[in-house]
Structures are given as structure tokens and as C-alpha cells.
Amino acid sequence: MCALLVGLPDVTIVGVGEWPRWLRVVVTAECERPSCCGRAAWCHGIRDVVLVDLPVFGRPTRLVWRKQRWRCSTCRRSWTGQKPEIASSRCQLTTRAAKWATLQVGRHGRSVAEVASDLGCDWHTVMDAVVLYGTPLIDDPARFGAVTAVGLDETLFARQGPFRRQRWSTQIVDVRHGQLLDIVAGRDSTGSCRWFAARPEAWRAGIEWATLDLSASYRTVFDTMLPDATQVADPFHVTRLANTALDECRRRVQNETVGHRGRKADPLYRARRRLVMARERLSDDGHECLLGLLRAGDPKQEVWFAWNAKEVVRQIYDHTDVVLAEAWVAEIVRDFTDTEMPPEVRRLGRTIGRWRDQIVAWHRSHVTNGPTEAVNNLVKRIKRVAFGMRNFAHYRIRSLLYAGKPNWDLLDSLTPP
Ligand SMILES: [Zn+2]
After folding, report:
1. How many angstroms is it from 99 CA to the middle of ligand 1?
2. How confident is the model at residue 371 (pLDDT cuts 50, 70, 90)?
3. Which of 16, 259, 359, 394 is the most buried (most CB within 10 A)?
4. Residue 417 Cα, ligand 1 centroid: separation in angstroms?
5. What residue numbers bound the domain in which 335 lies?
6. String of b and e for 102-119 (b: at least 16 CB within 10 Å)?
């Protein structure tokens, strides 16, 4: 009955006992006497290996594997028998517990700490098992096939040290299918260039579209590694740039007119949320209120200009026609760089001018809102499960298991050494 409950092949249950913190199941595994240097090995005592197993009837459990040690009389080597179907020698979890933990953390997006508390063991014990069993799944060459549209996106993944130094990574995403292809450390061009260089020539040649935020380093990556792909500026980042310009303008005007940073009663400070909201999401009352606040706090109408600039930039994406969009962007660049405009808007105009081709390419690419939004959601989801992981390798495995569509079918047959 006990053997049936434990459910492991070729083991004998020696005993079961209740310990204060967990249930202990002691087993031995039969194995033949091995030989070394042409002679049968000697018995060399017994060693108890304590392994974390799946919880039994709601109680954390340890499987104690009473292992036979062997010794060679000629070369003096000593060793113990291995049975990877019970547990790998490189893992403190039994094989079935390690596979379960990998599924929980990878597929279901549970936190490592949660899974560790279910098993009644240490955070690192679980993470080591996830690394050991997860790595073959994400290294599987069949994980992603041909890709026609690829995107680069910078992500903050942890803050570290006494000064909360920011640590950045670059996510490489298949923007058509919303699949995370890989993550490289840093947000400069070197890591991503190396990643693309490691792909086969034919795979790179199949990429027609390359989306990026408005950063020069990713432009370098695409210019050097994917010279034939059409670069597309991600609409999300273009609108965010306009919002940032508006925000900077509001802060500056606030400071110039009142002489201090925004306080609760200041009209510009009260308008800050309504300013960055989309015009069509403001109710009529909200719009009136915004205009009133601007009249009160914006004597030279600079914030008003910046707000209009933001709306005009958003309207780039209302156009469905390439020619119209091109004309619209050209007009934006001309109007924004007018000397009457506040400096923030002029700078925005210059930036848009530099990225004009990439912005209009969005209309030509038909990389529609769908994929881009899927990618933004993907990034949010990854942040939820993996943000704050100090170790980059852990962060990469965690994110790829969750959002990189690893080959889960492989997990069942996996037997690490
Ligand atoms: Zn030997």
C-alpha cells in the first residue's frame, strides 16, 4: 500500500515517519553490483540523501534515499549509484517535484517563493531546479520558427545596490505572434548585435519588419544586423514621447509662473492627469475643466500648445493611408519647429523629424495595433512575474519559460544527469 502511494518504480519503502516539519519517506533502490577496473566493486557503507518531494496529503515531504556507496579496491575511487528517474545528482528536488516546480513557475507564472513554500524548502533550491530543468526547454532550437517581424524593447528588470542602481535588459520579441524570442543583458547595441549574429543567415534574411522604440542604439542594431528589414517606430513609444514633452513643459511653466514645484492647489498640478489623457476619453465637463485650469495657470499658453502637439502626434495613427500620414508627419515637423513654440515642442518636432521614415513605415507595414498591443501586454506580464530578480540568468529563464513558448512536451521525457 505504501509503495502504491509513493509511486516510484523499483524502490523499496523502508519506513515512513512524521517529523515536526515534514513527512519522511525512507526508500532504497535495488541496483546491480557495479564493476570497475575489471573487478566487482566493494560495498562502502550507506549514505542518506534527503530530497524534497511533492507534498503528500497537504504535508511537505522529504524522500530519504538510502543510497549504497561503492568502492573500487584497485583505483580507490568511491561512488554511489544514480537513478535519474528518482532524482538527478545535481538537484535537491526529486525529478517529479522538480518538473512540477518548473511547470508551476514557468507555465503558470507562480512566484518561486510561493512554490518553495508549498514544498517547504528554500527559494534557491526551487530556482536551481527550475534552471536545471527549464534550460533544455528554452534552448530547444524548434522553440521559434521563421519570424517576419521582430521588435526590440528595453526593460528595467531590477534595482540593485545601496543606490538602487537600475539594471536594464533588451527583449527580442516576435511582434506578429507576441512571442518572446530572447532576452539579452543591457540596452546598448552590443548584446543584441551578438544575438542576431548567432542566428542563421537565412533566418535573418526572412525578417521584413523591425520595430523599435526611438532609441539610437536599437537603430544601430537593425542598421548593421538587418539592413534589409524596414524599420518601424512603435506607436506606443511615439505617443509616450509626446506625453513626456507635455509633462516637461507643464513642470517648467509651473516653476516659472509660481516659483515652486506643483502643489495640490496649483491649477497646472491639478490638470496633470487630464493633460495626458486622450482627448476622446475626456468627458465634456473634463475638457471644460482642463481649459479652465489652463487659463488660470498658463499665461503664455505654452502648456496649451504642448497639449495640442500631443494630440496631433496621436492623430498620426488615425490615418490609414500612407500618403496622408506622410503629409501629416511633414506638417508636424514644420509646425513644431516654429520659433513661437515652447522649447519642449520644438525638441519633439526635431526628434520626430529624425524618425520620420520609421514613423510612417508603421502605416506601410500593416504591423497593426494587434501585435504591438499583444507585445505591450507581454512585457507587462513578464514584469509581473520576473521583475526584481537580481540575477540576470534567473530573470532570463523565468521570462522565457513564461512568455517564450518553451517546448513543454519535452519536460516529460527530460532526464538530466
Ligand atoms: Zn577502479
Report:
1. 34
2. low
3. 359
4. 21
5. 235-354
6. bbbbbeebebbeebbebb
